[in-house]
Design goal:
21 helices, six-stranded mixed beta sheet, binds adenosine-5'-triphosphate, alpha+beta
Length: 584
């Protein structure tokens, strides 16, 4: 398989913004690939060599990539850098310079998919003193053998900035179109949600069809997309939606953890599938000790505990555990307890298909509980009065609110989906009449006065899961303290781009654009129609989107969320509608 065919397909994808067209391009292409090649192509389309949760990333520094472009093209490094400063993308620079060189080169070999994967693997695994030089050499070699389009994508992949616009959902659509049918699409998505491995799903489907997909089960070591909750604005509505009776659990304010435990090892993943095992080594070890069986996958909330009083500490304290430096002292000084709320797998059995009560029972029987490993507090409520009492108890215990959980026979663990089987209700809804939003930073405006020379306000966007776009909902300039303002450049500048990213939709023109990567929690007074913002544009009114009024940064950097896990446009619209019913 020639890499140029793959690069040409990426170029076709990039030239359209229609998801339907992308699906057709991919479906046509996928149909011609060997199953194992399909797996590699899927990873490459996401700018990777492995599934998302794989711990090593390619990510070469831009300067190194520019050095390789210079040496492969024969242009001087400063000329290459000058061009890059103008274009803001190593891929575009490589494409134009390599194209000049091509006419002269007689010795290049056509690159195959196998070559590209092998060379990228060398880059990924290079270690030690000379690793930077090795990476530059390997990349130079690849660029020598590349045509312009191939060079564009190779550089983007190694820089960690691949953006052909094919989201995971589009890949799943294309797989269904190519190897199955529309009706099978939900089952293919389920297979992805329980493995988080698009490549595996593609290869299995191409090789074994839907029979293979139906056999895909949760597996220890493969993170599972987390199940998410809907929100409702009042306790009576929660109870009504649950049919008058449901389970309620305290909603702890910590960090979600999915632990994959065996007899002698553990892996802990965050809700965005980052491997946080080293940050929670103590909790992990205790989970291994306390598990009564041999293998399990559980979910829980990791909460920092005051070592003197045993009380739960605010969310900010557990974030000290995300540090790279000083982690040892954070582990020593800030004890953490995991409050488990679900079990997805136990000793060879996929439990995701069991109803909530059965899973809870298995969870409670599967571990010895102690000061570091416990269960969320849970009760069954049968009416509003009991529910309000439970909510008050949760707030009294310093929790954020409650999670209501359905007791119906269909209350399975729905990996990767947000639905009314779980409903969250928080203290915030009582006090400020609004939930918070987790929004991606897509732009910045330079400040004035006291903020001159700094970013003074940020342009914030919600995620549209149907189109893969980030649609702005507010300009955020309140709630920043001096330390945060000073930290903004180092937080954001790595994601700076020269023009508006194709997946960002807004009516505003910030001074600086960013690729959506960084997520901040934002509170607001209410939601309102806005001609400048593009979230849910045209849904409530023809020529208006929905914006957040009086947005304020809560001080919570959501580095446990990827940009695609920002509050969705659908949620924003639902919250907008809820304002007219009651509360929120
Ligand atoms: P969301 O997860 O809904 O996108 P979020 O990450 O901002 O949003 P919340 O909206 O506050 O979080 O609520 C869901 C989160 O609450 C879960 O992801 C989990 O981390 C946490 N949580 C705390 N207690 C529980 C519980 N008892 N059951 C389930 N989740 C809980």
């Amino acid at each position: 398989m020639l890499f140029s065919d793959i690069a040409d397909t990426f170029a076709k994808l990039e030239s359209t913004s229609s998801r339907l067209e992308m699906t057709t391009i991919l479906a046509d292409f996928f149909g011609h690939l060997k199953p194992s090649d399909l797996r590699e192509v899927i990873y490459l389309s996401q700018g990777k060599l492995h599934p998302d949760f794989y711990p090593v990333e390619l990510g070469m520094a831009d300067k190194m990539v520019l050095r390789a472009i210079a040496s492969a093209s024969g242009y001087k490094e400063d000329k290459v850098e000058e061009m890059w400063l103008k274009e803001g993308d190593t891929g575009t620079v490589a494409e134009s310079l390599i194209s000049g060189k091509k006419q002269m080169s007689l010795f290049s070999q056509p690159l195959t998919l196998k070559d590209v994967v092998a060379q990228l693997t060398r880059i990924e695994t290079a270690q030690g003193k000379n690793s930077q030089a090795t990476k530059v050499d390997v990349l130079t070699g690849m660029l020598h053998d590349s045509g312009p389009t191939e060079a564009r994508y190779i550089c983007r992949i190694v820089s960690g900035r691949m953006r052909v616009g094919a989201s995971a959902m589009t890949i799943l659509d294309a797989l269904a179109q190519s190897f199955a049918d529309k009706e099978s699409r939900p089952d293919i998505e389920r297979a992805f949600n329980v493995t988080c491995d698009l490549g595996l799903v593609g290869e299995t489907l191409a090789e074994k069809g839907m029979t293979g997909i139906d056999e895909i089960r949760v597996k220890v070591g493969n993170p599972i997309k987390v199940m998410l909750a809907e929100r409702l604005p009042s306790i009576p509505e929660v109870i009504e939606k649950m049919g008058g009776r449901c389970a309620m659990e305290f909603k702890y304010d910590g960090m979600r953890a999915q632990a994959h435990i065996t007899k002698d090892s553990v892996k802990i993943y965050s809700r965005r599938l980052e491997n946080l095992t080293d940050n929670f080594l103590d909790v992990g070890e205790r989970l291994i000790q306390n598990l009564k069986g041999s293998e399990a996958i559980v979910e829980g909330e990791c909460v920092a505990i005051d070592p003197d009083t045993g009380n739960m500490l605010p969310f900010q304290m557990v974030t000290h555990r995300r540090r790279k430096h000083g982690l040892d002292s954070a582990i020593r000084d800030i004890p953490v307890k995991i409050f488990m709320f679900d079990i997805l797998y136990l000793d060879g059995r996929d439990l995701t298909h069991l109803p909530y009560e059965r899973r809870r029972e298995i969870l409670s029987q599967s571990f010895d509980m102690d000061d570091m490993v416990g269960l969320t507090t849970m009760g069954i409520v049968e009416d509003e009065v009991q529910a309000e009492e439970f909510f008050d108890r949760a707030i009294g215990a310093k929790c954020e609110g409650i999670m209501a959980k359905s007791l119906s026979d269909t209350s399975v663990y729905r990996a990767g989906s947000r639905g009314f089987l779980w409903i969250k209700y928080k203290k915030d809804y009582h006090e400020t009449l609004t939930d918070t939003f987790d929004l991606a930073v897509v732009g910045a405006f330079y400040g004035m006065g006291k903020r001159a020379g700094k970013y003074g306000a940020l342009l914030m966007a919600a995620y549209d899961q149907d189109t893969g776009d980030f649609c702005t909902v507010c300009k955020l300039g309140t709630g920043f303290d001096d330390a945060f303002l000073d930290a903004l450049p180092s937080l954001l500048d790595g994601t700076k781009v020269n023009t508006v990213p194709s997946n960002v939709k807004t009516g505003l023109e910030p001074d600086v654009w960013f690729e959506p990567k960084v997520v901040l929690e934002v509170a607001g007074a209410d939601l309102t129609l806005s001609p400048n913002h593009k979230a849910a544009y045209g849904w409530a009114k023809e020529d208006a989107g929905i914006g957040i009024r009086f947005p304020r940064y809560t001080g919570r950097l959501r580095d446990d969320k990827s940009a695609e896990q920002s509050t969705s446009v659908n949620e924003i619209y639902d919250m907008y509608e809820m304002q007219f019913s009651d509360g929120l």
